[in-house]
Amino acid sequence: MTRTLILGGTTEASSLARALADRGDDALFSYAGRTAAPVAQPLPTRVGGFGGVAGLLDFIAQNNITRVIDATHPFAAQMSRNAHAASTQAGIPLAAFERAPWAETAADNWTHLPSIEAAAAALPQVPTRVFLAIGKQALSVFANHPQHHYLLRLVDQPAVPLPLPHTTVTLARGPFDVAGDIALLRDHGTKLIIAKNAGGTGAEAKLIAARELGLRVLMIQRPAVPPRTTFARLDDILAWLDHTTDRGV
After folding, report:
1. What is the pTM of this model?
2. Which of 15, 79, 200, 246 has its CA 20 to 30 A from that of 135?
3. What is the average pLDDT across 184-202?
4. What are phi and psi of 185, to 5 degrees?
């Protein structure tokens, strides 16, 4: 008997959950709990951290998990490392369901940077208006650059005061469209965008808008995670799940 644990939070995770529910697979869905109202899933769902590798190992054992799908955000590197370690120690298969990164075109003006800290260091000294499209977890990195005005697009209203003195917060949940993002950037006088290379179509509109408006983008590259079997298409991850079932793993 097989039981799949989906580590979710992405569009890919939701599409996989729907597919497994539709075909009657035994599966559980896990959210990290970063947002107050996560998207409802058609599978039994838990919310919150596991407590590191040891906690995830306990969960795997207690819930008879036989394979793990890491469909977390490409920048949730610690969770991906924990999933790799726990799956290896438990002796069960692990695969990642992950969107391909965005690719720069000749019409783009991107500066590729290895980390959020490097992106903050690359900001100009002269005050400018920045669309800080990185979520809310690492805003404190920019506290040493308070001269800029930051536009933030968040899913939830911040529960605590932001560490940046000049900010505009807009609340929205993707997917976003190009016309809307062009209007957003123009309305706020944005001159520079800082983005994580998350990939996918849901948040790509801001990059197309930047291309149309001739804006510079500081693009943060994905963090390193342990090597694992990775799929970008739903059909491929479903075939992998069927293969692990056929082998009796």
Report:
1. 0.84
2. 15
3. 94
4. -65, -40
